[in-house]
Amino acid sequence: MKAGVDYVWCGPCGQGLLYAVPGGEFACSRCGSDIDADLDLWLDPGHTWGVDSVGRLYGRPTRDAQ
Fold it and tell me: Would you tell me which of 25, 49, 51, 58 could form a disulfide with 5, CB atoms 3.0–4.6 Å apart?
């Protein structure tokens, strides 16, 4: 896992990380719950969001431009 980033955990089970899956959605690595990024996922606007090389969704606090 990347240091200094916040990975997104599954809401229903709380034990697995969210991974990108085909179709623009995310799924839990543990319970398999599907998360529709447009309907079921709120991402903190104070973070910059991305997907790492194995598909895990993560955020990093955005630095102020000052």
Answer: 58
- Measured at the CA of 11, the angle between CA 9 and CA 14, to 5 degrees, comes to 60
Q: Quick: pLDDT tens for 11-59.
A: 899 999 999 998 888 999 999 999 877 777 888 888 899 999 999 999 9
Query: What tokens does 14 get?
Result: 């709380």
DSSP codes, the chain = --TT-EEPBPTTTSSSBEEEETTTEEEETTT--EEETTTT----TTEEEEE-TT-BEEEEEPPP--
Answer yes or no: are the C-beta atoms of 18 and 35 closer than 8 Å. Answer: yes
